[in-house]
Amino acid sequence: MLKKELNRVLTNRGLIVLAGIFMLSALFSACVRINRRGDSVPFISYRVTMKDKGLNLVNVTMRVHSAVMDNISLMAVESGDCMCPDPLSMIAETENGDTIEIEASDGKWVIKNRKRDFFISYDVITMKEDRYSSRIRNMITSITDRRFRVIGRDFFLIPVSEVKEGVIVDFGFLPGTEIRSVYKSMGTRVIIPAADDLPMSLCVGGDYKHMATSIGGTQILLASAGGWSFEEDEIFHLIKDIVSYEIEMFGSSPRDRYLFVCDRNPILGGKGFDYYGAHFGGNILLLFDPQMDRSDLFDIQMSVISHEFFHNWNGEALRPASDKFQWFTEGVTVYYSYEILLDLGIISNRQYKFKRDAILENYRQNPYLDNIPIASSGNSDMSDKDLVKLMYDGGFLAARAIDKHLGDISEGKTELIDVIRDIYKSSEYGSEIDERTFIIKVKEITGYDISEYLKRLVHSTTPEIILGAEDKMYRAG
């Protein structure tokens, strides 16, 4: 009896062990399958360091882990009229130090790694600050002994093939500094969500002064170079008011985190712009005249803040489908940038009228006025200041005229912002819009077709309709 019971127990234990072995085997094979799937996509990281301060020479070292493909392709991104970066002294090596062949052509580099993990190292020359240059878009990166602001497109070659989410970037410019970015950061390390986000990633470090707040769930960060005639909390208060107002205008914010960088404009006078703003992703760069007075915080120059933040909706959430609609993206944004300052009491009616009259006079005197319609103007070449001004000045006046026209045909029930807000709410984030989109939405809201009106307004080289609209609004007060 005891023998039978012992055999039964051993048999049951054997079954349990066999079952356990089976389960472990199944789990192990599942883990193998999971790991194989995970390893099919490589993981990348970058380290950026200063190689030669005198030459503004920066070294970028990229590491590729779990590189199971035979070849991995990298590419530069288009920036203005060039591809960036333009790498020098590029070398690719395995972790054992074996050299890897690189095949380069037309802004693309194929690394023939044959399923081996590797490092790729190259140098980049950053542009020096030249106060007589009009190429402001190439001046976003600035590295000094005290601080730095860098934009990813100036440094990073971007993988063409799929890579894992979470790209680590380590900066070695100022050891011990705290990096500030819209992305997660700790010390000198930033984690960029995806490789596609690398070109427009903005990171600052060094002796910037920092402030932060939350507005309706949207986090607002400020990094200011300091040394201004105003205190940081004064400019931050201004930013908070503008951000709150614009989020309320649209009912929601496209992003939940924004970084404002307030710095000195390296390009002044001549063909340059004393006040310049740039918006890309969750970043708003504000380049102010270093000599600006505290009173400028309550003047028309602060439209650079309301302008760039307004682009979160009209420009990013709603992107122009082509250059032919750039007049709308910029012109309408200019128009509301001043209206917002006026509504918030940051500027007075007198200041607004002075600026409006100046824009109208600049428009009248523009040498392109009788040859290029507003819709054909542009800002792709910032060195042609007259063409840029035609788009911004003409776009502002066109937006003003459209706002007045919509009020007339709807008996005061519809404003321009109502149409833009409705398009925003009914579209997916990042939707492309064009003139047809706008015309359809206006007809849907008001019942009127304004296509002929727009044809005369922005596609004609004769500006009588804009000047006539301005005269009419002037007489009406």
Gap between N and C termini, in Å?
Answer: 112 Å
The percent of residues in helical segments reads 25-40%
Count up the helices: 10
Could you say which structural class the secondary elements and strand pairing correspond to?
alpha+beta
What kind of sheet is the major sheet?
Answer: 7 strands, mixed
| Overall average pLDDT | 86
Would you identify the regions where 5 or more consecutive residues have pLDDT less than 50?
Answer: 1-38
Global shape: globular
List the strand order in the largest sheet. Answer: 6-9-2-1-13-15-14
Radius of gyration over all CA atoms, rounded: 28 Å
Strand composition percent: 15-25%
Summarize this structure briefly.
The chain is α+β, with helices and mostly antiparallel strands. The protein contains 10 helices and 23 strands. 35% of the residues lie in helices and 25% in strands.
Main traits of this protein?
5-stranded mixed beta sheet, disordered N terminus, single chain, 477 residues, 7-stranded mixed beta sheet, alpha+beta, globular
Can you put this structure into words, describing what you see?
By secondary structure, the chain is α+β, with helices and mostly antiparallel strands. Helices cover 35% and strands 25% of the residues. It has helices at 2-39, 232-250, 303-310, 326-344, 349-365, 385-409, 416-426, 435-446, 451-458, 464-475; strands spanning 43-52, 57-65, 72-75, 77-79, 82-84, 88-94, 102-105, 108-111, 118-125, 142-143, 147-151, 158-159, 167-171, 184-186, 189-192, 202-206, 209-215, 218-224, 257-264, 276-280, 283-288, 318-320, 431-433. Strand 7 (102-105) and strand 8 form a beta hairpin. The longest helix is centred in the N-terminal third of the chain and has 38 residues, at 2-39. Mean pLDDT is 86; it is low at 1-38.
